[in-house]
Fold these 2 entries.
Entry 1:
Amino acid sequence: MALAGLQPLTKGRSYMDFKRNRWAFGIGTIGRDMVYSLVSTYLIFYLTDAIYVPTASLWWINGIILFARIFDAANDPLMGLVVDNTRTRFGKFKPWIAFGAFFSGIATVLMFLGFSLDSPKNVALFGLLYIAWGIFYTTNDISYWSMLPSLSAKQSEREKIGAIARICANIGLFFVVAGIIPLTQAFSSLLGSSQKGYLAFAALTVAVMWAGQLATLIFAKQPKAPDGANSRTYLREMAKIIFKNDQLLFTALSMILFMIGYMTTAAFGIYYFKYVYGQESMYTYFALILGVSQLSAITAFPFLSKRFERDYLFKLSMALIAAGYILFFFSPTGTMLFIGPAGILIFVGQAFIQVLMLMFLADSVDYGHWKLGKRNDSLSFSLQPFINKSGGALSNAIVGAVVILSGMKDADSAQDISAGGIVAVKAAMLLFPMICIFLSYLIYRAKYKLDRKFYEYISWELENGRTKESE
């Protein structure tokens, strides 16, 4: 019963159609991930080490960011519902992609304008701006990624589209991670202050995002939608679509725990090399390890997926990550001899998980269509930004609290950090994430059942106009 995929999504489509969509969709992720990485990972560092926000204000900002991300994440399904019910001559995805990209870019630049945050009024203003950024970015994020399942119903083609998208996204991530220190320093020297250096860097990321999103809007083409894709979904049905799609729900729970762990580690990186390792410039080299490892792993993923089942790749990824965390924790704090290999293990495993998560979510859209009799691409994929935001919110809160409590907030160099502060940083950066990722694996192991054989059966059922509800 092996199938090429849903006939309405693939019939009459040429190789060039698929190839164009792979790159048109993928290129759009470069700038998006640059902007998201800048805000989610380095905004706190900008506040503490570029414009030197007072400690009292930083506590309030930390709380505001946590509240804003959780609030925004909780509203993601509503945005997914809006996208699913959108009917325009440009389709349901592209209008929201354009709207979200434009206004999230504006909000990104405004957050780095450097206005004083030493008064409650300005802190509140910054909080509102951050909330606005989250809403606009969500609008783009949900509509963008939920377009992926509609580009092809073939698992193999989705893997290629997803792999290229993750390669491009990681290029954007790598550019920010590797370039944040040398480029902001260069801009700062040219423009006269660290604040202006970060503002210029933010403007650069937004320009790349707008260019990439424009390429997606112009060149990505969707095939004819399958039956059930254009029926309206009502607000009262939202909970049913999410909670009765058990594969979607358990994938989301597993990935939230994974992202909390991974993003906590990523957000601590620049602090680790400045205040524990003792050489901030070494973070750029560590970022190089991150970029090469992730890009190599994602490039290899389509070839590995032809030879190994996803379940095997998932287990392998988790094992690599666990080994990397253990090695990193016990590594001496003054040499890259062990930290470098530990980073390779962590980032290779994490890169595989990135692609697998996309595939799990994409397949759960078809599973939900089969189980519930209605297709909801955007509502289902709204859980991806929910996952990222929940992970980012909690990781930012953890990082912000540990930065203050460990003494890094008021330190000038590594010599100002106590032994207890170093232990706190390493525990929060490495031990806590490892626990989260282990719990993530347990949920996946116990509840995920959408393997290749089961997916082929669902595809056959849908191709023949049958769903579980109609049986």
Note: The two ends are 19 Å apart (CA to CA).
Entry 2:
Amino acid sequence: MKSLTDEWNHLRRGKWIMVIFVAPLVAALFFGLMFSRNQLSETPVVVVDEDHSSYSRQLIEAINASPLMKVTNVFPNRLSPDILLANEQAVAVIVIPDGLQQRQDKGLSSSIGIWMDNTMPSSLGGIRPAIQEIVTTENTTLAITRLTQEGMDIKSAKDLVSPLSLVQRMLYNPTSSYIGTMVIGFVNIIILMLTTGAAGAIAPRLRQEGKLLSAGSSPFQLWIRVLPYAILSTCSSLLSYGLLKQVGQMRFEVAPYVFIVPLLLYSMALCLLAMLLGYSVQNVSKVGSRMSLILYPSFLVTGIQLTPLAFPAFFQVTAWALPMNWLNRLIRGMAFRNGELGFYSVELGACILIIGMASLGIGFVLRRESRRQLLNLEAGTA
């Protein structure tokens, strides 16, 4: 308990307690407001109308009426896409070919072209399904109209043209909100960066102060020092998630008092892993560079910007050693899908395994340093 009291006194003298709460809350507020619109709507597109017919104007109105597209300009003749897509005033060009209405009147098929600027793929997410929906609707309407003109009743025509319909429902994140993906990922990364920097500096700081082995070679005297960091990190995370729920309407279904359990396990795993990686650092100022071994992989392969399923199997397995990989899975499972705690024994077990392995590693390096110091003392007295 003396080690715990000593570490708490060190925390109170510094600014880390204030930073661990203020920085994530500021990030949650900033990014929550920044991405509160959830997704890109009314993506700007331009239309090249080579047909100049009433039907082409009807198509342009349908495109502009889509909630996912906005027609910013209509050109009568085809131009180079380099010109039309310059200056990012539009991200796609839709080309309506000459003779479209004439071919439609004759019952012939036609093709509508679309050029898309894929330098920023995220801006095209709504265009493809929107234009496909318009084309499908037009095809169905034209087919039913032609069949009714030939004497078939409307119901039979609909059954013939569209015998199978698709009903779909987006679960857990129906608006494709960035709050539950990138924003919460940014907040978690900030908390991770602050927590690993502080926990990873414990052993180097004690070594510089001459206190590392003052309480003996038992790893418990180091293990217990991470408790304040884990508890404060957990509290900071819960407050940040609550702010995201209020500011950015983030989905968070599980009761906070239930989610404290996985958060505490994650924070302990993170702190102990950071302590193990930072143990051999001789200067506290160099701890940050060592913590990049946790920070960068956590940002890249744990499911913040891209689902881990998109990575090769090697990177998916590598991510198992990172506590944030399991935190993100717990957030998606418990907070977003409202899963019960018992459903996620694998994720909880992984955090406990990291805690155990890191504790064993800390005990090993501490005993080794204690033995080396003892040998040096014996050699000096001899």
Note: The first helix runs from residue 2 to 13.
